[in-house]
Design a protein that fits this description.
Chain A is built from 21 helices and 2 strands. Chain A is mostly helical. Chains A and B meet through helix 3, helix 8, helix 9 and helix 11 of A and helix 13, helix 17, helix 18, helix 19 and helix 21 of B.
């Protein structure tokens, strides 16, 4: 699966052909003969593809079709095409021949493990609940869910299956999911962000690129960015962003606004670009209850397990201070942390515990009970939105799409459904279920009687009620007296 | 209603005035006297309108106010305005005097029949359920629903009513709905896309233009485009799009990204521009169960009835191959078709059948039952989103806004509501209803016991469960072993 | 709290230093020594901030760091920073030293009273239902809700608390909410729209800026604008918008499209710019039932109480006619008014009345009942969307996100919940509750039997049903006969 040999030869021969003058130190001196042959046809048959390449940095570097698409004999996806052995798929392993540092960083990131989802909960949803095994292909004769193929896999990636004569299985390609598992064993797809065939850095710096996957009900980072001051400034000052600059150091090359890349990946005066997007993140808000990123990395056997959230936060602060003073940044993090803490303690922890207690009373298959959906959307959709919203200062996502929805779901659906479930089974003939129902009811009672929730059962203390009344009146009087 | 005569005279006289030199072959040699008179006032009173026109192609072509707004004696909406007989409304019939090919193509399209909705289901919603007949006008004295006027009609168009002295009824105009029915009998509004008063092609090529109507919960094409690689590339490369180019052939004049127009309307090296937007579409995903576009065209007596989906798909493929190779395109269509098939077979067909079986048990008026809303949103909102999402490779719309919502609606609402409805009527005094309830329950049982749905009732086969367990574990081990 | 004295001295001394030539009439002749000292460090430590300022109008006007951030002895948030007494917060009072007219106008607007929300219903949601008092700070030792801090307060503003040594309490700052209550008693934050540190008018004219707060489920003005022709034209013609022009008079300096600012704030040939955004609005669609803006102003003791909606509408019409003729504008308002009237009469008024009648039957705490959420979303989310959608001609927001959702909520949730509530209490042991239940049931019956709602109970008159049938058939035949 290693294309290094062939391609090294390709480069070498390109250099050798030039003969007369000393070989260049870096890269080919002119475009190889094989690539010229590719172009002779493709400029006619795929003119826009050809032009995208012509507009790329690869063009001036004499990196043409064959320099990336050539294959070695024996590679599973290699096939003869007009007398040249090529492969359609260009993988991170291929890209690493010229961009080894970037691929190395990327391979340590969560991004590169995106396809891990194929063995997870969300995959049960797409495979069984939403889907069936109706999409049968040569490579997947038992069939696969079209909901997974067209949905999950397009962001997360999948294992690309190779058919006879180097063809790629239609259920597994087209696929530019960021955690794609390639026939050569490498993980990822560089063109997930550096879209074909211009492979531009400017493209990858643009928030739309991240928005291919980081959007929608369960992780609306793109929408939050657009609401935040960061996005507002970006969209109003795009022409000042110097997006095409190779260096692109914040505060040196641009200052009007940050994009997703600025904060999570790009260079500052002190930090180099990184392709491991987790190194500046101090919370992992993906699970039911937020955890620290090093904990998540440890679970996935990633080297980030050794990098504490404090280090990562310091990395991010180094970005922030280009535009904000230290007090601002410190205070921002106090606000963000407070929201994560509110969600975790008021909803995440008790919600998760109650769901565990309810499980013995539920029908066997997950998502066959209304309660499954209720809890899932509470943490996976709404609870994330609140936390992500606060992380990027998008107030409507924090509140209206976030904590408001969390609270509505909790009090108007989750609690009544749990109550009904417990009551229905209190006298269950199955003693185990009756006991489970009693345990659930007891814990639910404790939760509702706790400081955070007792308003719901009319037990807000008179002192607190009076305090709130007073505060509201004082506040209103402020405006009325004017 | 035909303005041809007057306006031909207008053009002729413009030419005649010039006298001394031979008349031009095409178009007026200079701006007509009548338009000059219009401008004398409107440059003061409507300065932005005047400037938009000044920025349009019409300006240099000496096509001014009067060339479009002049009217013939006897036209219903003609009226005297500062001694010139004019009409406010400029219709496709008027535009066809110079743009006959475009109007002809447009008149064969679904777009031109947009107002047909006024006799359909959605109209019942807007007229009765959401609305009333509280908006009473001179032209519609019985009253009309403000929800239809401000909602449906603004995209679909309506029949424009003419009042005394050429005034237009306020319930029916302003209206630039794409299927507007004009006083001269023509259908459509060119300014639905070529917005006044610059009437620009570049404007119509911009995805925002299509997004006026193709957005929102039931047909979020604009949002899907924005999530897709196509939209991502467009928004990051707008300055390379050469949007103002008259020719605008993909692969020749631009290559950075396609817009809606590129794929559905604009020129390729082999295909000319078309104003019939359905000629490259191979599925009609509008109804409960997707159909082929020629079937839809036949229902509407459109000439497209004779154009098979294979031909239309070939038309689209001719666009795709400018940027993608043939294998990519073939495989994409396999993925897209698989999603349409999944939705149709697992949810669309049985869902529709169950709704028919439930009807005898429902209250008379549609939308007076919760079940009506449940089924409607399942196919009309969520089911479309899934299919549209797959058609343009927007993975979150396919999955999170699509199949996820379809499945949630089906299992957590539709099935329980159907079950409850059947059970409530099994012993109905009305023998017909009892029989209907039994039939509904029987069919529901069959559906839930079918391969696609039996997981829900805990009947996933042990083999399948074991297979899934194994696959998930293998997948996880992949990452844990590293 | 008044920084005038110090800063006047700063300016004066800047002028005095120049000595030899006569002092300038306006503004400092060169950048002050103190600001130069600030820059010496901050150009290194906050390079992007420094560059933003360098890109601002302030740069050429010699208004530097110290000119805005200097503080007087005794100001609560003043502190010594490298031997200069400064304050972090720059307030409208500070800005008014150079921009007095703008601050004066702003202080009369609803915008400046944004923090009034802190004593309102939405605040109960964020403080109690969604939140707790878990975010404890030095300035707010009793604790405050992180949902309010990260949500509500970021748009509405909050009271900024000053800690020891001029530090700002982290729960109350960062905060650029438009109604922020500053330590100097002034209200607002100019950088809510004129974002730091370029403070640009062009930025404030861009719809993204308004979209920081005017978006989301309960007031999606940004989304509606994007769907409207106004937004469509803007996004396709951004390069023609002349956004940086100081004068920026519609019809003179630009004509391609209006932004939010164009219609609500910016200059026309006849009107000057205003920073009171309510002066061109003829409906206040915020409450359960729309009211006129002068009524809302009177409730808030704002000077706008004396400015009728007719005057405000005339102000807006003066903007509209730059692009639209008078008949168009008049008819548009007839359409918009009809939608407000439909919502008010069919849903707003009876819905509010029924909720009042239901209250005696509900659990004490608001939002502890499902009905609370149902009614709240009907008017506060969906009912607003319909009205806002019509106000800006966004048909999908008017209909699919608006009246459709209103009707669905009303018929499939609100009416059934009210019915169930009334029936459950008809025989209540508490005679008061039984009487309340009877009253609720009676009024609900009247509402459902009224002309607007009787379709729901199957009582559409045969004449009306026949009329509708006929109309639909005629409409369909139109297309079938072709």
């Amino acid at each position: 699966m290693n294309r290094l040999t062939t391609r090294a030869l390709v480069l070498a021969s390109t250099l050798a052909i030039t003969g007369a003058v000393p070989a260049q130190v870096f890269g080919p001196r002119e475009l190889g003969e094989q690539s010229k042959a590719c172009i002779a046809c493709h400029r006619e048959h795929s003119p826009a593809l050809y032009q995208q390449w012509g507009d790329s940095k690869h063009y001036r570097a004499n990196v043409g079709c064959f320099e990336c698409h050539s294959a070695n004999e024996g590679e599973p996806d290699a096939y003869m095409h007009h007398n040249q052995l090529i492969a359609v798929l260009v993988t991170p392993k291929d890209c690493s021949r010229c961009h080894s540092k970037q691929v190395e960083e990327f391979s340590k990131s969560h991004h590169s493990k995106g396809a891990r989802i194929l063995g997870s909960l969300d995959n049960v949803l797409a495979e069984v609940v939403e889907g069936n095994r109706g999409f049968r292909t040569e490579g997947l004769p038992e069939g696969v869910s079209a909901a997974a193929v067209n949905g999950c896999w397009q962001c997360h990636g999948t294992e690309v299956k190779v058919l006879a004569e180097g063809k790629l299985d239609p259920a597994t390609w087209p696929n530019s999911g960021i955690g794609r598992i390639n026939p050569d064993g490498s993980e990822g797809a560089c063109n997930a962000c550096h879209t074909r065939h211009s492979f531009s850095a400017a493209q990858a710096r643009h928030p739309s690129t991240c928005g291919k996957c980081h959007m929608g009900p369960d992780h609306p980072q793109k929408e939050i960015y657009e609401e935040s001051k960061h996005g507002i400034n970006f969209f109003a000052n795009l022409n000042k962003m110097n997006m095409e600059s190779p260096k692109w150091v914040v505060g040196e090359d641009y200052w009007a606004a940050p994009t997703c890349a600025t904060c999570h990946m790009s260079a500052t005066k002190k930090q180099a670009v990184t392709h491991d997007v987790g190194l500046r993140i101090s919370w992992n808000n993906r699970p039911e209850v937020s955890i620290r990123p090093e904990v998540a990395d440890a679970k996935m056997n990633l080297p980030g397990a050794g990098i504490t959230w404090e280090t990562r936060r310091a990395n991010m602060v180094d970005v922030c201070i280009n535009c904000h003073d230290t007090q601002w940044v410190t205070n921002f993090y106090a606000q963000y942390d407070s929201l994560v803490d509110l969600y975790n303690t008021k909803f995440g922890v008790p919600g998760k515990e109650l769901y565990q207690l309810a499980k013995p009373l539920l029908a066997g298959a997950q998502f066959a009970n209304e309660l499954d959906w209720t809890w899932y959307e509470l943490w996976h959709h709404e609870g994330r939105r609140a936390r992500h919203g606060a992380s990027m200062m998008g107030p409507d996502y924090t509140h209206w799409h976030g904590t408001y929805e969390v609270a509505k779901r909790f009090y108007s659906e989750y609690v009544p459904q749990l109550t009904e479930l417990a009551e229905r089974h209190l006298a269950d003939a199955d003693a185990g279920k009756a006991a489970a129902a009693a345990a659930l009811r007891a814990r639910l009672g404790e939760v509702l009687n706790s400081e955070d929730h007792k308003w719901y059962i009319g037990k807000m203390s008179p002192e607190e009620a009076a305090r709130r009344q007073r505060a509201a009146e004082e506040f209103r009087s402020r405006y009325e007296s004017k």
